[in-house]
Amino acid sequence: MEPTTYIWLDGEIVLWEDAKVHVLTHALHYGTGVFEGIRAYEAANGTAVFRLTEHMERLHRSAKAYHMELDWSVGDLTKATLELLRANGLESGYIRPLVFLELGALGLNPTNARVRSTIVTWRWGAYLGEEGVRNGIRTRVSSWRRFSGSAFPNAKATGTYINSILAKMEAVRAGYDEAIMLNEEGLISEGSGENIFLVDNGVVYTPPIAVGCLDGITRNTVATLLTEDGYEVVEKTLTRSDLLYCDELFMTGTAAEVTPIREVDDSPVGPGQPGPITKRAQELFSDAITGKLTTHPEWLEYV
Ligand SMILES: Cc1ncc(COP(=O)(O)O)c(C=O)c1O
User: Fold this and answer.
1) Structure-model confidence comparison of residues 112 and 80, the more confident one
2) Domain over 6-122 is classified CATH 3.30.470.10
C-alpha cells in the first residue's frame, strides 16, 4: 500500500506516521472494532464518494451492535472523509473508517475503554485483479461456514472477519481467487468479502439477508440498477447445486465491485465466461460510480 500524507484521527487530520496506538489497545486483543470500506471515483464532475452516507450509517449500526458510543455523527464522518480526500489530493481511492476500543479496560467487559475513530484513504485498484473483472474468477466452496448465530453477521466488526480470513486464505492457498461461504445450515451466504448473485433462465437471484450475509451496499446498488433496467431480481435461498447448474454467477462489493465468477469447485459456470447479465451489471455499475447514469445523483457525494 502506498501511504498518503494524512489520516483523520478523532476529529483531527494528522500525519500518516503519527496515527499510532498503544499495544494494550482493546481491539488488538479482542477484535473490538467496527469498520467500513468505501470507494471514491473520478466521476463526471470531479472526485465523488459512492454512497458515502449509507456507508457511515452502516458504521453507526455496526457500532450500536457492540455498544460502542461514537463521538461523531454520520454527518461529521462524511464531512471528515471529504476533507481528508481533499487534504491527500486523491482523485480516486479506497476509504477505511474504523472505530475501535482503545485503553481503559483489558477484560471482556470493555465498558470503560475509550472509543477512538479514524479514517484512512489510499489509492487502490481492482481487489480481485483486472483479469478477474474481465474474464471472471475461480472460486471454491469454503470448508468454513459463515457465522450467523455467534455474532451479528450484519455488523462489520473487525473480530468477526477472522472467519472470512480463514475462508479467503484457504481458497487462495489452494489456488483459487475467492471463497464462497455457506451459512451454518448449508445455504449459500456470500464470498469472504462480497455478496453473491446468480442468473438462471434470465432471472437474477441473490440470497436474502436472513441467511447471514452482509447487507451489501453494492448488492443493493446492483439489484436496484438491474431492476430498473427491466430484469427480475429475486431474493431466494440458494443451495450448492444452484451454483452448479446456473447460467451466470457474479460477486459484488465495494472492493470487488462487480466481478464475474467463471468457475466453482473446478466446474465452469455456464460456458465458463462472463455472461450477458453479468456484463450488463458491470456496465450499469460503472455508469453509476462515474456519474454517467443520471437516475441516482444522490449516490455520489462530490469532494
Ligand atoms: C462479508 C462481506 N460481504 C459483503 C460485502 C460487500 O458489501 P458492500 O457492497 O457494502 O461493500 C463486504 C464488504 O464490505 C463484506 O465484507
Assistant:
1) 80
2) yes
